[in-house]
Amino acid sequence: MARAHINGIGIDYDMQGEGPPLLFIHGLGSCKEDWEAQVAHFAARFRVISFDLRGHGASDKPAGPYSMAQFANDAAGLLHALQIESAHVVGISLGGAVAFQFAVDYPGLVQSLTIVNSGPDATVRTFKEKLAIWMRNYVVRRKGMAKLAAMIALRLFPKPENRAERERFIERTSRNDPQAYLNAFAALIGWSVAERIGGITCPVLAIAADQDYTPLSMKEAYVARIPGARLEVVNDARHALPMEKPAQFNAVLERFLAT
């Protein structure tokens, strides 16, 4: 593990392997440890960088508010600190949204873009969505991160054979500072770069789990708006796809990066 001073805060990161730079961006309430199976697989051929977003993991947790542009700027600052001119960028969930923001704000830093179970828009449109946001805030403030982690884990890893992954998720998510978590959550709600994604010119792959709680139709719609982008669906999988089915996920990503 290493640490870089970026935009006035400490960002914790890990870098392994040699070759083309490959940057992984984790999801809300997660950390760089979520990418362990990908780091182990890709470090033989890539210079793999994973890091903790501000407010997450071992990175600093400054007072909010946070913003998606700020997260993207931190990622750009990390690449500059590591003297990396550009990287293949992979993001899941919140990390996928950060990756979209990164690609439209810093196109010269992105060799290719892989979006996992995410999209370019988090606009709140329905009462059901508003209720879900209220409920998550309520659970974090009144019940704590451990309760939220246990609730989410059952949706992400429902199968008995994924018990170890479920327990790791609960342990990692429970570590979160509640206010920093809510700051990051608030940064995502209402955010959108949907009107800018048509200008992305690097190769783009969207990877979707068939049982993800973000609709496949949404992913099909935004992929159609990005020139040359393509979508691959992994069956019998859920939101935390890289952890739930690492072999299948790594194979899909490896095929994309090879082209």
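The above is record 1. Record 2 follows with the same two-line structure.
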Amino acid sequence: MTANRKFEEITLSSESVFKGRIISLQVDQVQLPNGGTASREIIRHPGAVAVIPLLEDRMIVVEQYRKPLEKSQVEIPAGKLDPGEEPLQAALRELEEETGYRSEHVKHVSSFYTSPGFADEIIHLYVAEQLVKGEARPDEDEFLECEAITLEQAQQYIREGRISDAKTILAVYAWQLYKLTGQI
């Protein structure tokens, strides 16, 4: 058995439990590497994008209410991929919809799984520079406010819990590295 397959779980059955607008939930019965069986609850997600928008010495963030947390959060602009949409196009769309800014200087930073223990959601992270201000067009069910913050403010927001999601914390650390080394 090859090293990357020695922990593989073989799906014996799969049951769709819920299908929503954004996510679906399935329960799989799997055979474990030792021959035993187990149940796996899996969230399926279409994938998402997030953007680190840098405007001179500031990062553009949005504050919005997050119902699962029952509080407002400060985050980088982000959103789910539409069917068939390329991540770069989604990143440009989300940047403009949520902040009003556009950019022709966008670079892919990384793609990462948010919670691989129970979900297949992947976020494609980009950095956008040389921003040009336009008009924000949030979705009709999005209520948010934009702010341009310094690195010090971002770090303070993390300490205060105003920034507490993984993608934005990663963005702040990537920005800090960029400021120190010139590379992201």
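The helical segments are 87-99, 151-160, 166-181.
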